Amino acid sequence: MVILLLIGVALMAYVAYRYETLTIGGAWTAFLVGAGIAIPFSYEGLLLLALFFIGSTLFGRLPTRTFKRETEVRTAGQVFANGGVAALLAFSVFLFADDELAKIMFISALAAANSDTWATEGGRRWGGRPYHIRINTRTDTGRSGAITPIGTMAAFIGSGLIAIFGSFLLLGGDWMFVMTIAGFTGAMADTAIGAYLQEERKCMRCNRLTEDTSHCGHNTQIIRGIPGFDNNKVNIACTIVAPLFAMAIFLLV
Ligand SMILES: [Zn+2]
């Protein structure tokens, strides 16, 4: 059974690579993440991962007015930033006697990744100009640390979707509300960390703020934040905050 699932994961990673959704490194990382989830949680865990992966890929390819239609090819770093912590938590089920807590933490991490992705995709499409929580003013669409009401609503729905499916698939319908709040909290932490700690870069040619290390064919310069603390690391933090939040609730009740 596990062998069949692993072959399925390898096929999915290969298809994603062929259709230029993932780089070769991204495809390998996706295989490791999938295997790390399939071995402890079988097809139930994989279904949840597929829901996150396929949902956010399709969402990311919907047409948009404010942004160019994105055909971003995800790298190993981006794949790990979204699914790495969830896979490590899934695997931790072998280390701890209490597999209910490991499942709750795994689902919460994935809910946070989905929540953050939906917030970004929903906000940049239908949110209008976002409000930046640190500089207290409206700012450019897509900037870290900026929020919109639509994006925040999308974050809640994105978290709830994974929490509800995860709860039915792995926890017999329990804990869905706690995991929804945990995932949403992770996404909100992502915004706060993105606003206050993430490095911010500027293109010295066109004066645009960007998250990319190069723009207009030249290297961009860091203008604030912790050097090296990029979007991937903020996403990893987001997927760590959510399971910790869920664990705190689990241990309190
Ligand atoms: Zn530029």
Number of strands: 8
Largest sheet: 3 strands, antiparallel
Bound molecules: zinc ion
Strand arrangement, largest sheet?
2-1-3
Order of helices and strands: HHHHEEEHHEEEEEH
The coarse silhouette is globular
How far apart, in Å, are the first and last alpha carbons? Answer: 36 Å
β-strand percent reads 5-15%
Mean pLDDT: 92
Question: In DSSP terms, counting alpha (H) and pi (I) runs of 4 or more, how many helices?
Answer: 7
Low-confidence stretches: none
Give the count of structural domains.
1
Residues in helix, %: 55-70%
Round the Cα radius of gyration to an integer and report it.
Answer: 18 Å
Oligomer: single chain
Brief overview:
It comes from Salicibibacter halophilus. This protein is mostly helical and 253 residues long. It has seven helices and eight strands; from the N terminus they run H-H-H-H-E-E-E-H-H-E-E-E-E-E-H.
Which terms would index this structure?
253 residues; mainly alpha; 3-stranded antiparallel β-sheet; 7 helices; globular; binds zinc ion; membrane
What's the structural blueprint in terms of helices and strands?
Elements: H1 2-18, H2 24-61, H3 76-91, H4 99-126, E1 131-132, E2 137-138, E3 146-147, H5 149-170, H6 176-196, E4 200-202, E5 209-210, E6 214-215, E7 218-219, E8 221-224, H7 231-252
Antiparallel strand pairs: 1-2, 1-3, 4-5, 4-8, 6-7
The structure holds zinc ion.
Outline the structure in words:
This protein is 65% helix and 8% strand. The protein is mainly alpha-helical and 253 residues long. It has one domain. It has a three-stranded antiparallel sheet. The chain has a three-stranded antiparallel sheet with strand order 5-4-8, with no helix packed on it. A two-stranded antiparallel ribbon has the order 6-7. Strand 6 and strand 7 form a beta hairpin. Helix 4 runs antiparallel to helix 5, helix 4 crosses helix 6 and helix 6 runs antiparallel to helix 7. The longest helix is centred in the N-terminal third of the chain and has 38 residues. It is globular. The protein starts with a helix and ends with a helix. The mean pLDDT is 92. The site of zinc ion (ZN) has 6 residues, from loops.
